[in-house]
Design a protein that fits this description.
218 residues, 12 helices, Serine Threonine Protein Phosphatase 5, Tetratricopeptide repeat, mainly alpha
Length: 218
């Protein structure tokens, strides 16, 4: 069979340009130059409108500038192009949570988890939104999922401790606080000293012992 004489497809300079702007945006985001990063991501999607990752990263930079509604719009564009982009669903939940729309945030994290059930951060943030809605059992169940995936997830242990302390479940509060401090004594020893959730434990000898054990790391 003779070789095909059909020419190769022409090199797409436009797609190369979109990738270059996308990589530039990533670099600018890493050094905190979010406005410049947004400009780069915007140029990338102007050149290549179906560039889902660029829409997602544009949303991240907007979120970092507290432009949450615009961030949601960017995530929506990413998801419309690539519905299985679990990171975009997760990031959309973050922006919605920052807007105080916790139910919509939970719905986004549920989508992220459906696409990636091992997404510990999505489980954690889902728990935080549940807690803000005072759905405490749901919050604890979500944090338990996060911990099962990431046993050293100090923020999840600490969040559970706060809920239990507010509910006057002293033993559970102390057990979970100890786990948080064991994972990160410097951060959570200090946080336990000032967090109002533990106001009722300030005179408890076991609570004071936990703070004392963490004090060398603070």
């Amino acid at each position: 069979m003779p070789p095909s004489d059909r020419p190769l497809s022409p090199f797409s300079a436009s797609n190369f340009g979109a990738e270059a702007y996308f990589q530039q945006g990533i670099k600018l985001s890493k050094i905190g130059q979010y406005e410049a990063a947004i400009a780069s991501f915007s140029k990338a999607v102007e050149i290549q409108p179906d560039f889902a990752e660029a829409w997602n990263d544009r949303g991240i930079a907007l979120n970092d500038l507290d432009q949450y509604e615009a961030a949601v719009h960017s995530y929506d564009r990413a998801i419309a192009l690539q519905p299985d982009l679990h990171q975009a669903w997760y990031n959309r939940g973050i922006a919605l949570g920052n807007l105080g729309d916790y139910e919509a945030a939970i719905a986004s994290w549920d989508k992220a988890i459906a696409l990636n059930s091992n997404f510990a951060e999505a489980w954690f943030n889902r728990g935080c939104a549940m807690g803000n809605l005072e759905h405490y059992n749901g919050a604890i169940a979500s944090w338990d999922k996060a911990i099962a995936l990431k046993p050293d997830y100090a923020a999840a242990w600490f969040s559970k401790a706060c809920i239990y302390a507010v509910q006057s479940e002293v033993e559970l509060a102390l057990t979970n606080l100890k786990s948080a401090i064991d994972c990160n004594p410097a951060v959570y020893g200090r946080s336990a000293r000032t967090n109002p959730a533990f106001a009722g434990l300030r005179q408890d000898a076991r609570f004071l012992d936990l703070l004392e054990n963490a004090s060398g790391f603070v």
